[in-house]
Amino acid sequence: IVDAVYPNGNSSRATVFVSWVWTYGIEIALSAIENFCLKRLAENKQCTPELIYIWWFFFVNNQFRILGDGKILDTAELEEIFGKCVLQTGSMLIMLDSLENPKYTGRIWCIFEVLR
Q1: Are 82 and 8 in contact (CB under 8 A)?
Q2: What is the pTM of this model?
């Protein structure tokens, strides 16, 4: 998707890494992103929507496809694949489906992203 929007100048270095659970519905994801962007814009008057670039693995890397061959990746391999992306964005948006017992905290992949 990034490659498709790049020629029109609609992509840039990511400023926000989105961490979520694949089973969340689109309404949870869109609500979280909208709230994040509105808060970011309200806190920083110099920030504009054009300056918010989201790195969302949903559009870049499919975890299920990566693991589809049955190979178990160790933490060093995960670090190599994803660690740099998480660090380079500078901030993280964590999506939760609820504050009480969210699916997010039960997913080791999500915990890896947070601890990174």
Answers
A1: no
A2: 0.72
